[in-house]
Amino acid sequence: MHALLVEDDDRMAQALGTALTQRGHTIRRVGRALDALRHVREAEFVLLDLGLPDLDGLELLRRLRTVCDAPLIVVTARCEERDIVQGLRAGADDYVVKPFRMAELMARIDTVRRRTAPPHGHPDGTGASVHTGDVEIDIAGRAVMVAGAQVQLTRREFDVLAFLAARPDEVHSREQILDRIWGDAFLAASRSLDVHVAGIRAKTGRTDLVRTVRGFGYQLGSPSPGGGSSSLGDERDGGG
Question: Is 201 in the same domain as 228?
Fold first, then answer.
């Protein structure tokens, strides 16, 4: 795998580069946003620091996502909830706060790579499209249509929606979703899942497309053009 490492700190870049090289990856390290944009199309994976000298990292993330769909993990010292939420909404597949354990980061890279591998149909092994209300979820094509118009979701938002659509009659626990999509059921303590569910609802304009089941998890809903209730209980309770 060829990784693009966007990191302006030399010591951190050296440590990350060494760890990745030892695992058989090739690395291109850049320290500026302009260079990241120049080289991102060749990358199969991106590690992105947000504290860059020439452009705010979140803005760079948004720009990278307009030209590249490679798996991307933010690796940064920014630990405020607002930054984490913005990073996930902007298209990051994961968000790791410095300082971190190198073994954990390498495990997260492996997990993201597995979860973002080219699809072979939907999570149940078929390539069917799922219709609910005026929403069509094309699993194989990784596309979502609402009232005939395509809606752009981030990779992780689509993965969550596709997982729910695979068994639309079932209620899925938070742990099930986190384990299947993130590869880590213990992420239930974070708000990553809730952020992505909120993104699905906002971008589709169908707040009842994903239903919250109080104290348990989520289920695919039957949306109406007017939106409607997004939960079977209190959203905060469903969100953990």
Answer: yes
Q: Let me know whether 232 and 136 are in one domain.
A: yes
Nearest to 75 by CA among 32, 164, 12, 141: 12
Contacts with 105 (C-beta within 8 Å, 6 or more apart), sequence order: 16, 19, 73, 75, 96
Which band of pLDDT confidence, cut at 50, 70 and 90, is reported for residue 231?
Answer: very low
| pTM for this prediction | 0.61
Per-residue pLDDT, 46: 96
Q: Final residue of a domain: which of 91, 115, 139?
A: 115
Residues 212, 232 contacting (CB under 8 angstroms): yes
Whether residues 163 and 94 share a domain: the answer is no
Per-residue model confidence as pLDDT tens digits over 210-224: 999 888 899 999 887
Domain that holds residue 83: 2-115
In this structure, how many other beta carbons lie within 10 angstroms of the beta carbon of residue 24? 7
Last residue of a domain, one of 69, 93, 115: 115
Are 116 and 92 within 8 A, CB to CB? Answer: no
Q: Which residues of 25-60 are buried (b: 16+ CB within 10 A; e: fewer)?
A: bebbbbbebebbbebbeebebbbbbbebeeeebbeb
